[in-house]
């Protein structure tokens, strides 16, 4: 009975304290790549806690109890004894139905997001073939009155520049903006955005997942900004471009432009290797905690068994 309670407590703590800690930490924007990892670890740990909450309630159901027993080299009776709740077996069967429904819901959202994104990109590529032309600079040039520079991720990745942007940006600024877009494509930032979008749609009532989606979008832009060798030059280019990017592209000047310009002009700051190690260990611990809490009854049983044998 203890495992579901501590999992619920962990999820509540992560939902309330996690965003406050990350939003109030300067290092997240100082090292945006690690910041993206931290936000993803936070949201995935809450997802894991929710899934394992249902799993621990469902553990007394015979097929699941047999599976757990094989994993921990024990008997189904022991599993049922350590995971049963005072409410009775109906709670376990209800949990099985809820977990199964939740899994189907997640799979449907993920699949529909992938299908919608793929269709949108194909439609956009067809438009680019009709309206754009390849430029010697390694991008697709499109006749348009709005100054836009953005990339289209995927198998047929493209960087798109409008004629208005080409007229406004000088050669140096254009080089910096193109480096930004190529960083998006190289790092597959679209995958990070898609993941947070699925979680946002799944856990809509929880404000945390909307915040995480917004923060990840901002941080990947900052990470791509770091690909520029001239930070002040890129800041000037962002001011020139303004904002606006057609879906499903990722643009140079469409997300948190003011915060990014301020960050570029303030300087990069120093980031030490031990800080990377600390963030890596913290995110690993965050992801491992729900698993440890869910398996706590079986670990406790093994420890007691070993103590009895040794005694």
UniProtKB/TrEMBL annotation:
<keyword id="KW-0479">Metal-binding</keyword>
<feature type="transmembrane region" description="Helical">
    <location>
        <begin position="90"/>
        <end position="109"/>
    </location>
</feature>
<keyword id="KW-0645">Protease</keyword>
<dbReference type="GO" id="GO:0046872">
    <property type="term" value="F:metal ion binding"/>
</dbReference>
<dbReference type="GO" id="GO:0006508">
    <property type="term" value="P:proteolysis"/>
</dbReference>
<keyword id="KW-0378">Hydrolase</keyword>
<dbReference type="InterPro" id="IPR052173">
    <property type="entry name" value="Beta-lactam_resp_regulator"/>
</dbReference>
<feature type="transmembrane region" description="Helical">
    <location>
        <begin position="34"/>
        <end position="61"/>
    </location>
</feature>
<dbReference type="GO" id="GO:0004222">
    <property type="term" value="F:metalloendopeptidase activity"/>
</dbReference>
<keyword id="KW-0862">Zinc</keyword>
<comment type="similarity">
    <text>Belongs to the peptidase M48 family.</text>
</comment>
<keyword id="KW-0812">Transmembrane</keyword>
<dbReference type="InterPro" id="IPR001915">
    <property type="entry name" value="Peptidase_M48"/>
</dbReference>
<protein>
    <submittedName>
        <fullName>M56 family metallopeptidase</fullName>
    </submittedName>
</protein>
<feature type="domain" description="Peptidase M48">
    <location>
        <begin position="124"/>
        <end position="195"/>
    </location>
</feature>
<dbReference type="Pfam" id="PF01435">
    <property type="entry name" value="Peptidase_M48"/>
</dbReference>
<keyword id="KW-1133">Transmembrane helix</keyword>
<keyword id="KW-0482">Metalloprotease</keyword>
<keyword id="KW-0472">Membrane</keyword>
